[in-house]
Amino acid sequence: MAFCQNLPIFVGNMGKIIVAGIGPGSKEDITPAVLEAVREADVIVGYKYYFQFIESYVKDDCECIDTGMKKERERAEQAFRLAEQGKTVCVISSGDAGLYGMAPLIYEMKREKQSDIEIVSLPGISAFQKAASLLGAPIGHDVCLISLSDLMTPWNVIERRIKAAAVGDFVTAVYNPKSHGRYWQLYRLQEIFLQERSAETPVGYVRQAGREEQETKVTTLGAFDPEDVDMFTVVLIGNSQSYIVDGEIITPRGYYREEKDNEVKPGQQIMMNSFKTILSEMQKPDIPKWRLWPLLHAIHTTVDFSMEQCLWMDDRATEILYEKVLDGSLRHIVTDVTMAASGIRKGALERLSIQTHCYINDPRSKQIADEKGITRSQACMQLAAEEYPEALYVVGNAPTALFEICDLVHKGKMHPVGIVAAPVGFVHVCESKHAVKTLKQIPKIIVEGRKGGSNLAATLCNAILTFDDAEQLKPGRDL
Description:
Elements lengths: L1 E3 L11 E6 L10 H9 L2 E4 L16 E4 L5 H13 L3 E6 L9 H11 L4 E5 L4 H9 E2 L5 E5 L7 H13 L3 E5 L9 H12 L5 E6 L7 E6 L12 E5 L5 E3 L2 E3 L4 H6 L5 H16 L7 H14 L4 H4 E3 L3 H10 L5 E4 L2 H6 L2 H7 L2 E4 L4 H10 L3 H12 L4 E4 L3 H12 L7 E4 L7 H9 L6 E4 L6 H12 L14
């Protein structure tokens, strides 16, 4: 196998150029088609470091031409000159020649030269595929490949692509993550991904994949340290469904989910898919389940992601209220209007033996309101305090109902197990929510500000009644 730098130009029969990916770095990862091309080649052109992986397959009279590192264009020019002499030229790239390799350049040059040279492209095992096989099964679903090298791509373009991959929930393979001159870009990528993904998202990286120096590591997006990475490393970031088991990353394709979902009703399946979409689009999905579960319900009902900012609740409120369902202390729910009551799932109420009560159409409430000069909603709360003082109180319309609850609690006439406060409007709405916050001993879920409504109050109540489904993120059991 003889090396040379420049060959004279001859005119003769046209040869051909074979662009071949020789894999990530081990002889075992070179495809049979590529090995056959190497055996047939009259000339092999490539970076000298890669010749060690194919030298045992090269025929004796084959010329091997090293154009040096970062001499890709010169390499391509050389290949065309040799092919025009009638030679079969094999241009080698590591990994897959079509992925950050020589294939695109060869085809572009053919077009530029308007050449009749035949081009054959042979795929190889890419570095990200080899790395993935060493890390478990991290690329089981949609994958995005991003190079952090800004030699030929402006950084602002790269950053837009990083953002798109993070938002799109792609499993993402990162090439060229770092070099002596590029030390901050991987930190920026991590920062962008943490804005869109949970800190628990699996991350794996492999250095010198397929070579003697090979090193692998599995961690999480939050714990990932870019200082562990160098220019010979490929980084793989999982999607929102990826998980780590026994030190390996698995990104499920969905086969097991499909088997389980055979028993799921269509309406529930739609709701489950909606929750997954909401979770992938939330700004801060990495929050405790007792907060996440009602928040997902709120966003699902309103299609309003500002709920992330305006849904307020006491520490562990959802969990505490569900425990009261289990221990029997939450057996009655009182709403301020019938619309809120109608939105609480009947299946959940029957399953848990809970009754709902609304006094808005009770003749007594009208009589009390007229006699005392108060609103019908206030009169409803006074009636409820006499009959169900320890109920879960759910308010989705009237701020006066919240004020009345506060007053009755202060007078010792009412002892709610919990309060869902979501009145909507412009008059005294915010003030009523501030007032109910002062009831320190009562677990509360509050929609802050002017937003709210009976549908929102009902869905927050449903989140409490189905809190045992939160761990599996499986809403809609009682639809």
